[in-house]
Amino acid sequence: MTDAAFEAAVERYGDTIFRLAYSYLKNRADAEDVMQETLLKLYRAGEPFESPEHQRYWLVRVAVNECKKLLRSPWRRRTDPLEAAPETAVWDSPAQSELFQQVMALPTKYRAAIYLYYYEGYAVREIAALMGANPSTVQTWLMRARGQLKKNLKEAESL
After folding, report:
1. Residue 123: band (very low, low, confident or very high) from pLDDT cuts 50, 70, 90
2. Which side of the chain, N or C, has fewer Cβ within a 10 Å radius?
3. What is the pTM of this model?
4. CA separation (Å) from 110 to 90, 101, 141, 152?
5. pLDDT category of residue 2 using cuts at 50, 70 and 90
6. Is the predicted pLDDT of residue 82 greater than 50, yes or no?
7. Dihedral (CA of 113, 117, 123, 124) sign
């Protein structure tokens, strides 16, 4: 891969990889590590990609695998998250902030499915291939995530 092609790919897909990793890991530093590792694998990839869609799919798949690898690591299981320094995003409205908090409170598989479906525009079959699951399983995850979000947002609204 040429340096120019790599720079173009980083510009085009860097934010997507970071957001996906953040939705999996809920930690900015870990998401940056996954993004860096994914882009390093792209740089080292010898074969050119058939199309930009193929490259995007490959990058998302590698990022998902890197997130799963990090979540399985023994180091991560022995540590507690650093609650003293919460990472907060800046939103235009309180409703956006509340929705983000509720999405981040979902289990990992639901969070990732919601992110890939609504924010990245992947179809259910594509998400299934990316996450290594059946399409019906992904549909179930999306349905359960929507139900949980609806319930949690109604509860938060009534408070």
Report:
1. very high
2. C
3. 0.62
4. 23, 14, 5, 14
5. confident
6. no
7. positive
Q: 112, 20 in Cβ contact below 8 A?
A: yes
Q: How far is CA 86 from CA 26, 29, 81, 89, in A?
A: 10, 12, 10, 10
Query: Which H or E element spans position 149?
Result: helix 135-158
Question: CA–CA separation, 9 vs 124, rounded Å?
Answer: 25
Query: Tokens 């979540």 appear where?
Result: 71
Residue partners of 19: CB distance under 8 A and separation at least 6: 115, 119
Please give the structure tokens belonging to residue 121: 């525009």
Is residue 145 a contact partner of residue 152, using CB atoms and an 8 Å limit? no
